[in-house]
Amino acid sequence: MTDTQTFSIASIPGDGIGGEVVAAGLRVLDTVAKLSDGDIAFDVTEYPWSSAYYLEHGTYIPEGGLEDLRKHDAIYFGAVGSADVPDHTSLWGLRLAITQPFDQWANIRPVTFLPGVESPLRKADDTDLDWIVVRENSEGEYAGMGGRNLSGRGPGNEVALQTSLHTEKGTERIIRFAFDLARTRAVKKVSSVTKSNAQQYGMVLWDEVFARVAADYPDVETESVLVDAMSAKFVLHPEQLSVVVASNLHADILSDLGSALAGSLGLAASANLNPEKRFPSMFEPVHGSAPDIAGLGVSNPIGAISSAALMLDDFGLHQEADEVRRAIENVTAAGILPRDLGGESNTIEMTEAIVAQLEALHAEAAVPEPSH
Ligand code: NAI
Ligand code: MG
């Protein structure tokens, strides 16, 4: 037996369905560890930071919390958002309070079409579709710059300024990241998304950086598409997409569109990466806390489990990550589906079906070649 490779994971279930989908992903990671026969171990520490925690303590992340988080190899995040706290308070208090200081500047969001899952796109029935949205995750429209003022002039007179920040460095690193990712894929193409006809400063800088970086990747096909046209293209010609790179806000919106086209928001996975590995990266489903179904035990765990697979990739455990993805495909192909995809399985039933598939795949792989 080889030495055990131990990976330390900080789990932050957060609010609403965050707890149940994170539990589902950790159950799958447990299975991966068990099937490795002692090669791999995950050491999970749970942090109880949520909106309930905020209401009790006045803060989402306690003093010293980020220093604790930093010690882990990765962060596994559920969702944050509650009716009792304004959404901008919870998002800036917990999620953005991690992604920004940890410089998790690249957010990758694969759009995956699973067998057995009905897509609202007719094209999905007979065309192989899969693409990845690469989201600039550290600046742009979510730079948090601006302010509110003049409320002293009386009701109806307040003004607000919300400024986008586009730096040449920040733009270049995300665009290079997209090109490097495209080189690892069957279709080597990067589509850049802006709104540079209307936003003549930041988005034009983006277009110029894109053209300059593209020259270093002559083997990768490129296109520049305005965000409104790109949203139409997602629906009408998704087969032309491979890697789609866009600003913080544009990519946020486009990735929800992508996951809805694939069948449900509950399917979509995401990784917030600090590619230099100066800080741990954070893995989370794209969806939010889903207060409308929280506590019912019916949430779709596939987005969270696929995010755990992206974490395995980040750990260099590519074979294990592929096995998790194959287990998910086998389960949906067999018609075992959660309610948001028209099926009847609850969160635990979906998770156990995926675990059983993982065990079956493993047993198959372990069958020795017949000897002659
Ligand atoms: P949401 O993603 O929570 O829900 C949108 C719709 O999709 C709901 O009908 C929900 O039931 C359904 N849905 C989402 N995930 C599902 C799953 N795994 N299985 C089955 N159905 C699923 O988005 P919404 O409603 O806009 O936001 C709710 C709260 O979540 C808000 O407080 C918002 O700020 C927060 N939020 C947090 C995010 C995060 O922590 N990363 C991301 C998006 C929203
Ligand atoms: Mg979003």
From TrEMBL:
GO terms for molecular function: D-malate dehydrogenase (decarboxylating) (NAD+) activity; magnesium ion binding; NAD binding. Residues 8-354 form the Isopropylmalate dehydrogenase-like domain. The keyword Phosphoprotein does not apply. It catalyses: (R)-malate + NAD(+) = pyruvate + CO2 + NADH. Its EC number is 1.1.1.83. SMART domains: Iso_dh. It is an enzyme of class 1 (oxidoreductase). Its cofactor is Mn(2+); Mg(2+). The keyword Chloroplast does not apply. PROSITE patterns: IDH_IMDH. Keywords: Manganese, Metal-binding, NAD, Oxidoreductase. Belongs to the isocitrate and isopropylmalate dehydrogenases family. This is D-malate dehydrogenase (decarboxylating). It comes from Brevibacterium casei S18.
